[in-house]
Amino acid sequence: MGRLFGTDGVRGLANRDVTAEVALDVSVAAAHVLGSQGAFEGHRPRAVIGRDPRASGEFLSAAVAAGLASAGVDVDNVGVLPTPAIAYLTAARGVDLGVVLSASHNPMPDNGIKFLASGGHKLDDEVEAAIEARLGEAWERPLGAAVGRIRTDQSLAGQQYVDHLVATIGVRLDGLRIVVDCANGAASEVGPAALREAGADVVVINASPDGRNINEACGSTHPEQLQAAVVAAHADLGVAFDGDADRCLAVDAEGVLVDGDQIMGILAIALRDRGALPHDTLVTTVMSNLGLRLAMRDAGIATVVTGVGDRYVLEAMRAGGFGLGGEQSGHIIVAAHATTGDGLLTALQLAARVVETGRTLADLASVVQRLPQTLVNVPGVDRSRTDDVVLVEAVSAAEKSLGDTGRVLLRASGTEPLVRVMVEAATQEEADETAHDLAAVVRERLSL
Predict the structure, then answer these.
(1) Which one, 196, 205, 360, 432, has the greatest CB density within 10 A?
(2) Helices 190-197 and 155-167: crossing angle, nearest 10°?
(3) Which 8-state DSSP code applies to residue 371?
(4) Crossing angle, helix 125-133 and helix 20-36, to 10 degrees?
(5) What is the CA radius of gyration of the chain?
């Protein structure tokens, strides 16, 4: 399968790309690398393993546990829990390693393996490369009492995570009716439990995982069911998670989608008002709507813009000491309470803001006025030549014409001869016209 680690751990088609053999081997290699770097020095190493409900996660988590135990690592297998729960437990329990078996929002046949270092942070690229380099190496196996032990710990771990989530908000959610779409995924039990413990009246949909139905026409990637359910239940709002619950999108009382940009805007202002937004700064990616940045500027909040991917958001947050960041997809990181995106945490923080302000979600979300956006894919072009002088001049002229209420983004596909032209403008007509004009320049200058 080429390079084993991608941008978010190991991921691919379960039992073809991500096999039991791969899971076992990479777990042994991870134990060796972390051990050689001194992570286990002076104590018996421990790990926490969790997974989403995919059928393949059953054998893959067993293989990971076997690999770690064979390398002398004691394992707490906490079963089905969200990715951010494993990150939290890795830090809260002071263990040396966390492992998540999940393919997040991907279809059921996929799966993945994500390692978390002590403290619940993703492994650095250099550590992942070192693990990959040591796959299949000869090694001296521990014997007797030196082999690792595997302990099953499910209910206690889930409750520990729920208690942590509820403790992050300073208000009760009594009187608030919330519809929760769990995507038949890892949050199917702990998601509704956390909101109920916080006092909300919870209506639950898509919380019956059977190993095959994760993300199937539901959750944050398919919010249509949630939109209808919120209106039917006369709820105040709805929240939708993805398969491993590291993302959250919302729906207002009228069934209108509230995306990650709007949620970030709401939470940034909430934290700023409490004096809890470090450097009064929000970290976003280039794909966030310009309307978010304009709203933050008007609110006196700075924005730092990164490349696409939560990895880059996290890097910028840690480098700058910032406390909030995320993506339009709903992958939002609140650094005071989590080391990764946490959909349940986001849902609780959002609901708490509704309660403490007495305002509707629609009213809160209106702070971010999304600018009209047009995306044009231009196939059959040389994606390596987006620095063409004529094209660069055309983009510059378009940006100058759009002014402060517009922007242009050119992105080359990473896998095919295609360039994406994205334009945001004050009106849909202006966005359409500018995008198609620039697409014509791309086609003329970069055609193969």
Answers:
(1) 205
(2) 40
(3) P
(4) 110
(5) 23
Dist. CA 277–CA 301, nearest whole Å: 9
Mean pLDDT of 243-265: 97
pLDDT grade, residue 1 (50/70/90)? Answer: very low
pLDDT in tens, 306-335: 988 888 999 999 999 999 999 999 999 999
Residue linked to tokens 């809160």: 364
Which secondary structure element, helix H or strand E, spans residue 201, and what is its range? strand 201-205
The rounded Cα 358 to chain-centroid distance in angstroms is: 29
Backbone angles phi, psi at 212, to 5 degrees: -120, -20
What pLDDT was estimated at residue 261? 97
Give the SS3 label for residue 90. Answer: helix
> Residue 213: phi, psi to the nearest 5?
-100, 10
d(CA 191, CA 245): 9
92 CB contacts (<8 Å, ≥6 apart)? 160, 164
Share of the chain above pLDDT 70, in %: 100
CA-to-CA dists, residue 355 to 109, 173, 175, 204, 262, angstroms: 40, 7, 9, 20, 17
Closest by CA position to 251, among listed 288, 219, 207: 219
Structure tokens at 21: 């053999």
How far is it, in rounded angstroms, from Cα 403 to Cα 174?
A: 45
Token pair 């972390």 is found at 34
Query: 3-state DSSP call for residue 372?
Result: coil
Under the phi-then-psi rule, with left for phi > 0, alpha for psi from -120 to 50, and beta for the rest, what region is 426?
alpha
Instruction: Name the helix (H) or strand (E) containing 389.
Output: helix 389-402
State the Cα–Cα distance between residues 354 and 369, nearest whole angstrom: 19
Which residues have C-beta within 8 Å of that of residue 358, sequence separation ≥ 6? none
- pLDDT per residue as tens digits for the range 166-211: 999 999 999 999 999 999 999 999 999 999 999 999 999 999 999 9
Neighbours of 174 (CB within 10 A): 10
Residue with more model confidence, 202 or 287: 202
The catalytic residues are 104
- Measured in Å, how far apart are the chain's first and last C-alpha atoms? 29
Dihedral in degrees, nearest 10, Cα atoms 303, 309, 310, 312: -60
Residue 376's beta-bridge partner residues?
421
Assigned token pair, 134? 């040591």
Please, which residues bridge with residue 368 across strands? none
Candidates 244, 213, 219, 249; CA nearest to 98 is 244
